[in-house]
Prior knowledge:
The protein is α/β, with parallel strands linked by helices. It is 33% helix and 19% strand. It contains 8 helices and 9 strands. Strands 2-1-5-4-6-3-7-8-9 form a 9-stranded mixed sheet, with helices on both faces. Helix 1 runs parallel beside helix 4. The longest helix is centred in the first third of the chain and has 25 residues. It starts with 13 loop residues before the first strand and ends in a 7-residue tail after the last helix.
Amino acid sequence: MCATCGCDTNASSSIQHIGEHDHLHDHAHNHSHSHGKTIVAVEKDILQENNLLAQRNRGYFDAKNILALNLVSSPGSGKTSLLERTLTDMKGEFPFYVIEGDQQTTRDADRIYATGTKVAQINTGKGCHLDAHMILHALQGMKPVENAVLFIENVGNLVCPAMFDLGEKERVVIISVTEGDDKPIKYPDMFHTSTLCIINKVDLLPYVPFSLDKVKEYARQVNPALEFIEVSCTSGEGLSGWYQWLKAKVPVTETV
Length: 256
Ligand SMILES: Nc1nc2c(ncn2[C@@H]2O[C@H](COP(=O)(O)OP(=O)(O)OP(=O)(O)O)[C@@H](O)[C@H]2O)c(=O)[nH]1
Ligand SMILES: [Mg+2]
């Protein structure tokens, strides 16, 4: 049992590389669960171990000039839809890779694979977040090329993924207009640790009580530097702004 968030990532997490050997990789973790310590101390241990591995991932990304983005949101905000659109519309512009995190099934990885993108699915079992150790294992099977863009779609959850650094360059939080505009102040950690907030499903604005001004005001209370892009993955509205943001983040390749 992970004392940090109460979920159990030890029991049954697995990694599948979709469209390759489809091998299922049982994935045991070495979290140090020392009984008798206070919960705060155990939480610190787990996060410290995670942070060390995250730094290792970050070093790997830096060495290979890979832009790694961690996409976080509550379930159903549109993370996979955004990736499907992005990978289709920007096909050929960069080498893209995706790591999908879900408790069960390869449904999201199958959707990504259908776009022609190399993808690995991590099933976290009872776990409610990805951690740096899982990403390390997925990368070992994926072997991304240099100068690539790696999207990591985290498990749909606005709480626990905020605590786990994966080694990403930037964290992108997605909120959809059907969720309510007060989410940034109810789940501040996720908005505090993100660089960009994508507001999705704006095609539904006429039908739901959601204020774009209010959600931005609330989000700025927890993160004054947060950037916003409003999009609809269904209609395509606003997606060009996201693509521009993405291109500006890709590290420049040094030519000799
Ligand atoms: N109306 C509308 N529906 C959308 C939009 N984007 C996504 N959806 C729908 O929202 C639902 C959830 O989308 P997903 O892309 O699966 O969301 P997700 O965040 O990946 O979900 P999890 O991986 O389960 O957390 C699907 O039925 C999508 O078709 C949008 O811009 N507008
Ligand atoms: Mg998804």
